[in-house]
Amino acid sequence: MLQDRFHHQKTSCLYPVRIPRDDKHSVPSIFEQCAAMGGNLTRIAYGFPEYAVANFSPCLTRHNGNNWLIWRTQPEPFIFRWDQKYFYNNNRPTEIFLGILEKDDTIINGHSVRPGSHLMSYEDPRLFVGSDEELYCQFVSSHYASRHSKEGERFFDHPKVWVGLIDGGYATRMVMPPQGENRVKGKPEKNWCYFTHEGSTQLLYSTIPLIIMDEHGGSRQIPSRHLRQVSGEHPTFNSTAPIDLNGEHLVFYHWKHMSNMPDGRSYLQYHTSAYMLDKDMTKITYMIKKPLWSGSLKDELIWWTTSQGQKVSTQPACALPFGGIIEDEQLVMPIGVNDAWIGTFRCNLDNVMAFMEPC
């Protein structure tokens, strides 16, 4: 298991080598997918906690002149028990880290936003600037992969969303928002995206149906069934909050399904695409009618094992962004690859928009 982790962290994932592949029908690597768009992906190599076995689920937001990056870091691997249930090794769940993306490959001042010990897994962090122009974070917590889970008997056996102000680099005072069924036992809530539009903090609650809620308790539903042309009937979720493009808004979303390796073993695969909302956020005006990124086996999957090192299951194959910015007419957006590592995607915005088609 340790050899697998060392191999994953120190080989071509960090310094990609272009190797000709015999299988022309397989999904290209994330580096190849980004290059095909006319962009570039740079793996972040500096600034992560030394003890982490994986860093993923990144969100980038600009605030007060800094490019703030928040992400999920995993201190310990999953370990499978005899009954195929899995837990974080040493009962140490994932953490949320915050830092400044100084260069495409470098994070500075990285630290845990909630450094105290905790029992719940922290997942899917996102940053947003509130209507008061302060920086906020949101994340999901639950007893996922925890020995404290009672399979639905406890409130946090299902994921719930938390939101809090980033104060001095930390998020020590969190609230559980009332939207949806976030305060209802037994009802999972995740994949929310808070953002500010025209001076009001709003919530992109879901993709299909596309629901936006405001801070006064109102909500509106926007027709989005045509996104099924791309995602099919697979579970489909928000990836990023709307990115303002001087009026209209660029939004990324993702979906997932099971796929098979060449030897027949199954794995979970994610895809990501995008659409445009009009200035008033009342309709989808354009959409990309194919995946922009798909999880690839060429990027290597982390294998999780039993305590004796026997391979049981892999992390999903995914390329997931949770938030990006526009900088000098370029889209700058970190991407979490295979729930293992993070790369900074940089591409001329025109290249991305060229894929858009009228709905």
Unreliable segments of 5+ consecutive residues? none
Q: What is the 3D shape?
A: globular
Query: What's the β-strand tally?
Result: 28
The overall pLDDT average reads: 92
How many DSSP H or I helices? 4
Structural class: mainly beta
Task: Evaluate the radius of gyration.
Answer: 20 Å
User: End-to-end span in angstroms?
Assistant: 47 Å
Helical residues, percent: under 10%
How much of the sequence is in beta strands?
A: 35-45%
Reported for the largest beta sheet, the result is: 7 strands, antiparallel
Outline the structure in words.
The protein is mainly β and 359 residues long. It has helices at residues 2-10, 30-36, 228-231, 349-353, and strands at 40-43, 54-63, 66-74, 78-80, 86-88, 95-103, 106-112, 121-129, 135-142, 160-165, 174-175, 193-197, 200-206, 210-214, 219-222, 236-238, 243-245, 248-260, 266-277, 284-288, 293-294, 303-306, 311-314, 319-320, 325-327, 330-337, 341-348, 356-358. Strands 16, 17, 18, 19, 20, 21 and 28 form a 7-stranded antiparallel β-sheet that branches. Strands 1, 24, 25, 26 and 27 form a 5-stranded antiparallel β-sheet that branches. The longest helix has 9 residues, at 2-10.
Write the layout of secondary structure elements.
Layout: H1 2-10, H2 30-36, E1 40-43, E2 54-63, E3 66-74, E4 78-80, E5 86-88, E6 95-103, E7 106-112, E8 121-129, E9 135-142, E10 160-165, E11 174-175, E12 193-197, E13 200-206, E14 210-214, E15 219-222, H3 228-231, E16 236-238, E17 243-245, E18 248-260, E19 266-277, E20 284-288, E21 293-294, E22 303-306, E23 311-314, E24 319-320, E25 325-327, E26 330-337, E27 341-348, H4 349-353, E28 356-358
Parallel strand pairs: 4-22
Antiparallel strand pairs: 1-27, 2-3, 3-6, 4-5, 6-7, 8-9, 9-10, 10-11, 12-13, 13-14, 14-15, 16-18, 17-18, 18-19, 19-20, 19-21, 20-28, 22-23, 24-26, 25-26, 26-27
